[in-house]
Give the backbone structure.
Amino acid sequence: MKEMKIGFIGLGNVGGKLADSLLRNKFELIVRDLDENLANKFLVKGAKVAKTSKELAEKVDLIITCLPSTKICAEVMEAEDGIINGLSKDKIWLEMSTTDESEVKRLGKLVEEKNAVPLDGPVSGGCHRAATGNIAIFVGGERNAFEKILPILTVMGRKILHTGKLGSATILKVITNYLASTHLVALGEAWTIAKKSNLDLSKVYKGIAVSSGNSFVHETESQVILNGSYNINFTMDLVLKDTGLFDNLAKKLDAPLEISPLIVKIFKDGQKRYGSRAWSSMIVKRMEDLNNIDFRANGFPDELIDNEQEEKGYEI
């Protein structure tokens, strides 16, 4: 239906929802994922499935990757049947994974050698907002290429920010993920004091939400913590990846930090206690276990659903 052909590689928790938004808005889509079941779900919905990343890159104008690690992304890009070998003049690669800025730039150079254009475009705002096209998207790289794909970005996301040169979006994303992780750890201690003071936790939730202590993390993750499901659709290992990226960036910049190393240590302990694939919100369970309490309250959902109406996005 639309002019630009899009290829999407990585149909996991976030990628699958972003790709869904493209299909829902009638874009021509070719997908690829190592999990054939995920790819086949998109085939049923009307997408085409590529056998290799190279084949996908050859057939489309915009190649989007949304993958769980820098290592996997490098493999998808640089393999013999990978994206790089399928690129040609004026194609655009949009890296939507949360990754390392230096790695984005390294792969970006390989993309430019093929006369194609690299952009980094990580998302922020939670899986529930990715499902409805209401998530935020940061994009770094050439302004002309950004403007060219803006109609596509405004379908996947609500608020779109061009952050500057290639790699700048990745740095901003790592910063925001660090802040979210720090807020989550602090919430564990806040809920501990509220519980041990015998406060009504439902009222505490409302009170924090209208106070100077409020945060996006509280408004969202506190709900599934109070429910007891902890289901934020994001896992402990991914938080460790993100906080590690922030901490490593600080070291690279020779910027001594105080809180960041502690956050990494806390999440490593959380992973050891509850497992790599435990929901990241379970980090507050360390405080529940330490104090022999729980943070349960009635009336909170076991999973977050974005109730905001889907709207066409815009640049901020």
Summary: Residues 88 and 114 are 6 Å apart (CA to CA). Residues 172-291 form a domain with the N-(1-d-carboxylethyl)-l-norvaline Dehydrogenase; domain 2 fold (CATH 1.10.1040.10).
